[in-house]
Amino acid sequence: AEPGEFTKRAFLNGRIDLSKAEAVADIINSKNDFALKSSINQLKGFVSDQIIQMRREILHHIAYIESALDDPENISLDGYSENLNLIVNNLIVQIDKLLASGNYGKILKEGINTVIVGKPNAGKSSLLNTLIGEEKAIVTNIAGTTRDIIEETIHIKGIQFNLIDTAGICITDNEVEKIGIEKAKKY
User: Fold this and answer.
1) Residue 35 scores a pLDDT above 90
2) Is the sign of the CA dihedral 45, 48, 53, 56 positive or negative?
3) How far apart are CA 25 and CA 70, in angstroms?
4) Is CB count within 10 Å lower at the N or C end of the chain?
5) CB of 180 closer than 8 Å to CB of 166
6) Cα–Cα nearest to 38, from 92, 111, 94, 91
7) Confidence of residue 131 (pLDDT cuts 50, 70, 90)
8) What would the DSSP string read from start to end of 63-76?
9) pLDDT confidence of 106, banded at 50, 70, 90?
10) What is the percent of the chain with per-residue pLDDT over 70, rounded to a whole number?
11) Cβ neighbours of residue 42 closer than 8 Å, sequence gap 6 or more
């Protein structure tokens, strides 16, 4: 079997949904404990179950409205629009929570991008070196030593931080330094 083939077959045969299939890949590729726990919850159906429940509720109300339209003598829609408005607003809140949890899951999976930015010779590269525990960035007393982006990853209490050391922000005539400053501003 190719890597991921059994998961692919389970998805194609309707045994698992896309959310669970993605969770399998996320479990395999998780880089920290938080990402692993989040992916396991997704595999258990945390996201799928909520979406299924919301879909059921929507379908129930669609069926009720269609029934009332087909049989207006026996099924009344009086006051139903106010009730439906509350239900829709509640569903919107639930969807917003799911979307926010997706962003949280993305942060857990990919880490928190942390840009180290400031003036030249403010200690940005020294801070990077201290945090990663090695001399990755060149540190001198000459302003403009760091001209390109230096990226490193660290874990603090199970959370991944993607550290990004940048060139010092200043006004300069040096073309190479200007490129580094623009990159720093972009990040």
Assistant:
1) no
2) negative
3) 47
4) N
5) yes
6) 111
7) very high
8) HHHHHHHH-TTTS-
9) confident
10) 100
11) 19, 20, 22, 23, 26, 105
- Give the C-alpha distances (Å, rounded to integers) separating 91 from 4, 66, 81, 109: 34, 20, 15, 27
Coil, strand or helix at 62: helix
In this prediction the pTM is 0.59
Host H or E run for residue 16: none
Are 178 and 162 in contact by the 8 Å Cβ rule? The answer is no
What b/e sequence results for 22-40 when a residue is b if at least 16 CB atoms lie within 10 Å of its CB, and e otherwise?
bbbebbeebebebbbebbe
Tokens 């009332």 identify what position? Answer: 68
Beta bridge partners of residue 114, listed in sequence order: 163
Q: What would the two tokens of residue 148 be?
A: 């390109």
Say which residues have a Cβ less than 8 Å from residue 133's Cβ, sequence separation at least 6. Answer: none
Computed over its alpha carbons, how large is the radius of gyration of the chain?
26
Helix (H) or strand (E) holding 115: strand 112-116
Which structure tokens are listed for 16?
Answer: 């698992």
Please give the structure tokens belonging to residue 44.
Answer: 């258990």
Instruction: Give the C-alpha distances (Å, rounded to integers) separating 141 from 7, 90, 122, 145, 180.
Output: 55, 58, 10, 8, 18
Tell me how long the chain is. Answer: 187
152, containing H or E segment: strand 150-156
